[in-house]
Write a structure and sequence with these properties.
2 domains, Alpha-Beta Plaits, Rossmann fold, 14 strands, alpha/beta, 4-stranded antiparallel β-sheet, 6-stranded mixed β-sheet
């Protein structure tokens, strides 16, 4: 099966400063393969290279080296744009136009006939939750959340097969986020591929088939949420115990790489899976009662924070914080 998006060793450098100019590498040899019909989450701290990647895919920026393919065609092939929908992080619409007129304008860019433009505009305004009273109001009078809904609608005007979304949940209230999540799920059911960056980790966990994490322009993790969060902490188990642990038992658990937390009725232990049965024996020797044993499920937030902390340690060790890649929001 042909991949929806192939990113092959994509690199982007910027010249920054006045004199002398220096090179900053915002994206460093990124390679990814996005499958057809999946929702792919693109994560990373500010300046990791997410927006740079999306702008390279739509040719708003030119790569320093490397290339990418969408639906089997090089991003240098302008014909592939008819199959792409793009939601920029900061949309720029004329304040004087209404949402209906904005969609008509984008429909003209894709060569749609007048009847088809009107039909699609009406359907999309309803789909993204912009009511008739809002659809005919000047864009300059819309709220940030309404603008983001319009931003999503314009990306769908050409009925794209691939959607590239940069922070699509920005400015939306909780009902709006749920509405967009449901919409993205519907698009996946229709066979469309969604590639989106976000900082809202709960949306990633709810939506994404797979995710990739960037750090300082480099890919550091890629896989399903279960794969990445399951591998982060090396199969820890949680034991809930009624009773107390002796000092000797606590020392053993710490030596095994475990941790214990006092609760009102007993103790909660986190223990490596390979030491589970040893821990059970220790609990029995102390006269404790084992209530439950479950795997410890780490979250994307845990993984994200751990990556951030390791990045900070790397910068301190190298003592070159001034040379660290800042990336995506440098001058384009």
């Amino acid at each position: 099966m042909m991949s929806a998006i192939i990113i092959d060793n994509l690199t982007k450098e910027y010249l920054v400063g006045f004199w002398p100019k220096r090179r900053v590498r915002a994206l460093d040899g990124l390679s990814l393969d996005v499958r057809p019909g999946e929702i792919f989450g693109f994560l990373g701290p500010n300046g990791a290279g997410k927006t740079t990647t999306l702008k390279l895919l739509v040719r708003a920026l030119l790569p320093t080296s490397g290339t990418a393919y969408i639906l089997g065609r090089s991003i240098d092939d302008f014909s592939v744009r008819q199959w792409i929908g793009f939601v920029p992080e900061h949309p720029s619409f004329s304040d004087l136009l209404t949402p209906r007129e904005v969609l008509d304008y984008f429909g003209r860019l894709f060569g749609l006939a007048q009847y088809e433009r009107r039909r699609r505009a009406d359907a999309l305004l309803n789909l993204v939750g912009l009511e008739p009273g809002v659809a005919d109001r000047p864009v300059g009078k819309l709220s940030r959340g309404m603008l983001q809904r319009l931003n999503l609608a314009q990306a769908l005007i050409n009925d794209p097969r691939v959607l590239l979304l940069d922070e699509p949940m920005t400015g939306l209230d909780p009902p709006g986020r749920r509405h967009v999540r449901d919409l993205l799920s519907q698009l996946r059911e229709q066979g469309k591929t969604v590639f989106f960056s976000t900082h809202i980790l709960s949306d990633v966990e709810a939506l994404c088939d797979r995710i990739a994490i960037l750090k300082r322009g480099r890919l550091v993790e890629c896989g399903t949420v279960a794969e990445l969060t399951g591998s982060q902490r090396g199969q820890m188990m949680e034991m809930v115990i009624q009773g107390t642990l002796s000092d000797v038992a606590r020392q053993k658990i710490e030596q095994w790489g475990g941790a214990f937390f006092q609760t009102p009725v007993g103790v909660r232990l986190h223990i490596p899976a390979e030491r589970l049965f040893d821990a059970v024996d220790v609990v029995r020797q102390c006269g404790g009662r084992l209530v439950s044993v479950v795997p410890v499920r780490s979250t994307l937030e845990d993984l994200f924070i751990d990556e951030e902390e390791s990045s900070s340690v790397d910068r301190r060790e190298r003592g070159t914080s001034g040379k660290a890649v800042r990336g995506e929001d440098r001058p384009h």
